[in-house]
């Protein structure tokens, strides 16, 4: 096993540039998806963690010739401290939670920076490749197998006081839209009935087409689909 050599200024600059590049690669993918933590955030974390790893290696070699210090102490603090940034990327919207993947990518680029700072260039390169496969390729496979579901409030206004809702409900079920709750409201003054449904709609479903199909069913006057978190 080859003994590690003393870090030179060229080694440090090279590792910082590689940390910058690794953060940029992952950050570009996050920016393309309009995530809260994008290109600059990932670059700063990857480059910063690379710098901290360089310091972990350099300080013992400069101040302690016997190399008795532990170069992993600063790295351990990076691993625990990055959790605060990751938590800031997580957003809760009602029952939905967004930002978990971005929080994981922040933790991931911090690890990349530490690996590059330690001189593990091949391992870091393979990690970047696997990270891109996870974020891009597996994302497409996951969306195809498990489409993202959006919660919507569907309001169907009928012209009659006692309408038949079977046709509209059949259209909804045929589109694989899950009905979470249903409420019927009848107007006391005017003739008409409003059917209010809380539904879960997969991203693969064409909402506009469903709305047109429901409106063309018997006795429907108006169809409204609103966002519900």
Counting DSSP E segments of at least 2 residues, the number of strands comes to 6
Question: What is the makeup of the main sheet?
Answer: 4 strands, antiparallel
Taking all Cα atoms into account, the compactness measure Rg is 27 Å
Judged by helices, strands and strand pairing, the structural class is alpha+beta
Key phrases:
Alpha-Beta Plaits, rod-shaped, 55% helix, single chain, 19% strand, four-stranded antiparallel beta sheet, alpha+beta, 229 residues, two-stranded antiparallel ribbon, 2 domains, 7 helices, 6 strands
What would your notes on this structure say?
With about 230 residues, this protein is of the alpha+beta class. The protein has 2 domains: about 10-145, no CATH class; about 150-225, Alpha-Beta Plaits (2-Layer Sandwich), CATH 3.30.70.260. It has 7 helices and 6 strands, in the order H-H-H-E-E-H-H-E-H-E-E-H-E. Strands 4-5-3-6 form a 4-stranded antiparallel β-sheet, with helices on one face. Strands 1-2 form a two-stranded antiparallel ribbon. A hairpin with a 2-residue loop joins strand 1 and strand 2 (about 95-100). The longest helix is centred in the N-terminal third of the chain and has 25 residues, at about 40-65. The mean pLDDT is about 80.
């Amino acid at each position: 096993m080859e003994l590690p050599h003393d870090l030179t200024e060229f080694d440090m600059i090279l590792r910082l540039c590689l940390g910058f590049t690794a953060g940029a690669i992952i950050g570009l993918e996050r920016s393309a998806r309009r995530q809260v933590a994008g290109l600059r955030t990932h670059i700063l974390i990857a480059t910063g963690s690379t710098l901290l790893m360089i310091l972990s290696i350099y300080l013992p070699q400069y101040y302690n010739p016997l190399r008795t210090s532990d170069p992993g102490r600063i790295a351990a603090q990076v691993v625990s401290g990055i959790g605060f940034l990751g938590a800031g990327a997580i957003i809760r919207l009602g029952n939905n939670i967004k930002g978990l993947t971005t929080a994981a990518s922040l933790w991931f680029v911090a690890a990349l920076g530490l690996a590059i700072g330690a001189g593990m260039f091949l391992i870091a390169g393979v990690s970047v490749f696997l990270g891109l496969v996870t974020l891009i390729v597996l994302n497409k496979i996951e969306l195809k197998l498990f489409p993202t579901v959006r919660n919507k409030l569907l309001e169907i206004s009928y012209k009659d006081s006692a309408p038949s809702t079977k046709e509209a409900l059949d259209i909804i079920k045929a589109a694989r839209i899950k009905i979470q709750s249903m409420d019927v409201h009848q107007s006391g003054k005017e003739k008409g009935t409003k059917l209010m449904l809380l539904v879960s709609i997969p991203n693969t479903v064409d909402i506009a087409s469903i709305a047109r199909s429901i409106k063309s069913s018997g006795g429907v006057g108006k169809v409204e689909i609103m966002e519900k978190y």
